[in-house]
Write a structure and sequence with these properties.
Blueprint (H helix, E strand, L loop, with lengths): L1 H6 L6 H8 L3 H6 L12 H22 L5 H6 L2 H4 L1 H5 L3 H12 L8
């Protein structure tokens, strides 16, 4: 029985291993440990931090590709600026004429 107990490998969870090794979140970040938890952060906190970092990376990536923030996009959108009023026509007519200008092959007869 004792020999059986000696041959069994112990597999600790990330947080249990962190407590045994006394690893803090700062040490975990500095050493780039991914399979060991931290004694001063719960798994939920680590997950929330990872999700926020991922969101920030994706936002930066989208901005680099030319995407605008939603507030800026909406502020400059046709629905907000209402160019059809300045042109003196209805909204539907303005969009119809815009479509005709952009694609000369589409003919709409009224």
């Amino acid at each position: 029985m004792l020999s059986d107990a000696m041959t069994v490998q112990l597999r600790y969870r990330a947080d249990k291993l962190a407590w045994k090794l006394k690893v803090t979140a700062a040490e975990r970040e500095e050493l780039k440990l991914r399979t060991i938890g931290a004694i001063d952060q719960t798994k939920a906190e680590r997950t929330a931090i990872a999700k926020q970092r991922h969101r920030d990376r994706m936002r930066t990536r989208r901005r680099a590709k030319g995407a605008k923030p939603r507030a800026e996009y909406e502020a400059n959108s046709a629905s907000r600026t209402k160019p059809w009023i300045a042109a003196g026509m209805s909204r539907r007519t303005w969009y119809r004429r815009l479509a005709q200008e952009q694609s000369p092959y589409i003919s709409i007869s009224i």
